[in-house]
């Protein structure tokens, strides 16, 4: 039998923290193990010695100090009941979650509908670059009068067929 | 400072569990009278608990006061009023730990602290004891006090709760947040250390 483990339980027995079954097991062991019995008696004597130590009385100034410090604290503002209800944690939690969801949905919708796709961005950049080139070149300008594609470019991307018509 | 004979600090006579829960609930709703009732019920036990841990009556007074001020300000955050006692001890223990950490950082242990130390504190002696036995008793208390002070804090708090606060191991686990096995082992080690100190003292005596 492991006496060290038993001794941990012997202490627990002295501290009245052992269940009935392990306690009876320890008592049985004590009857058959003189070393553990000696340990038990030593610890019981120590226990008596420790518990004979005096307990201090509570000094009255502790409560006086608490009372004066609590009374010197500023009185809390009267609660705004409607505000309290409005921001009651449960409600506030749902409101906060809804607001976040709304923001996420709005951002997603904005991105899909307003922001051009990368390929559109690239095409627009090419058209703008071409317009600059055409406007700076009188020869190409002249050709453009006859060519709906150039005319479209010169007029900043307006309907080339309209442009053709307008040049006639 | 007066002292009383040893007795179980466990609240034996007092409100029933249900009444206590009611008191805590009313105190949570802001009743100052009920907060005072809680103080009346537990302050002495907390004061002695803290005193055993820090070893100074002056520090124990401050820490008891801080503990109850914290209880007053945070009582609403206690979800289960039936756990009030363990919650209270936890607050007191945390206050002690903070104090010990501050002391350690600033090496604040001064001569003044030593003078009011529990370990040098003279309790009222029984008039029945003859002078020699009184000296013996005082010396033994000093030895026990010194042994307590030399214990690591994690052994000291569980030992004080079990021996001086008469708390069951199951309850101690709720205060210190450690497993039952760890609590049992630490109390065992603490008792061996205290016993060893007492043995040394008795061997030295002629």
In short, what is this structure?
Chain A has 168 residues and is mostly helical. Chain A has helices spanning 3-14, 20-32, 34-51, 60-72, 81-86, 89-113, 118-135, 138-146, 148-154, 160-167, and one strand at 55-56. Chain B is built from nine helices and one strand; from the N terminus they run βααααααααα.
Secondary-structure topology with pairs:
The complex is a heterodimer of chains A (168) and B (206).
Chain A lengths: L2 H12 L5 H13 L1 H18 L3 E2 L3 H13 L8 H6 L2 H25 L4 H18 L2 H9 L1 H7 L5 H8 L1
Helix pairs in contact in A: 1-2, 1-3, 2-3, 8-9, 9-10
Chain B lengths: L2 E2 L12 H12 L3 H23 L2 H18 L9 H23 L4 H5 L15 H20 L2 H11 L5 H8 L3 H25 L2
Helix pairs in contact in B: 1-2, 2-3, 2-4, 3-4, 4-8, 6-9, 7-9
What does this structure look like?
The complex is a heterodimer of chains A (168) and B (206). Chain A is an all-alpha fold and 168 residues long. Chain A has ten helices and one strand, in the order H-H-H-E-H-H-H-H-H-H-H. The longest helix of chain A has 25 residues, at 89-113. Chain A is elongated and about 120 Å long. Helices cover 70% and strands 1% of the residues of chain B. With 206 residues, chain B is mostly helical. Chain B is elongated. The model of chain B is unreliable at 1-12 and 108-127 (pLDDT under 50). In chain B, helix 4 (84-106) packs across helix 8 and helix 6 (131-150) packs across helix 9 (180-204). The longest helix of chain B is centred in the last third of the chain and has 25 residues, at 180-204. The A-B interface holds A 7-9, 11-12, 15-17, 42-43, 46-47, 49-59, 61-63, 65-66, 69-70 and B 1-7, 9, 32, 36, 39, 43-44, 47-48, 51, 57, 60-61, 64-65, 68-69, 72, 123-124, 140-141, 144, 162-164, 168-170, 184-185, 187-188, 191, 194-195, 198.
Question: What is the terminal separation of chain A in angstroms?
Answer: 116 Å
Q: What percentage of the residues of chain B does DSSP assign to strands (E)? A: under 5%
Shape of chain A: elongated
Number of helices of chain B: 9
Q: What pattern of helices and strands is seen along the backbone of chain A?
A: HHHEHHHHHHH
